[in-house]
Amino acid sequence: MRELDNEWIQQVVASFFGYMMLSHVWQGNKPSFQDINIAKSMWNLPDTSSSDKLCNFCKETCRLGHNWAWSDTCCIDKATSSTLVQSLTFMYKWYMNLALTLIFLADTVHLSKLGDLTCSLWMTQAWTLQELLALKVILFYDSRWKPYLADTVMNHKESPEIIQELAKAITIPCGTITTFSPDDLRVCEKLHLASMCDATVKEDIVYSVIGIFKSCSLW
Question: Can you give the pTM of this predicted structure?
Fold first, then answer.
């Protein structure tokens, strides 16, 4: 019997089950886990700006060759406290295992220019800090779902212009952003980054830096 090629099997499985995440700033009503269950499909949700955002995200997921799309508000059952706490604790690990993350900048106009990313509300949100650092592959999109700066590379962490803009905005080295490890920053630097974040619920600022501080059992 032919010996199984475990490495090849792992690559095939990872390719099929690799999923994309939507990172963005929610505005208006957020479709919930319960909303999706009732509607049976995201495509059956009422026509709103939020559901339209999810539809565009899924279309882009398919266009980029992925089978699975993930968005926190409708993929986590926040009505169950144990599920919610577990999700918040392990979010950093989930980020690390993503195939790709699409970062939608709703307030960045089409034909974007250098500096627009820094001015986006996305840069000030608590959860986006952990997302930016933990993620290995990211793509920034403007308000018309077009690549930021018309940069069509498959990973904006490999774009010198974009990474330099990010590094200048959050005052950490470019290399730390592209290949981040929690050991790369001192505690005082992590606290400084956290102090620049904002959240509707203040506790979210703590939850959003759990992985950065290596404060959970995934390490």
Answer: 0.89
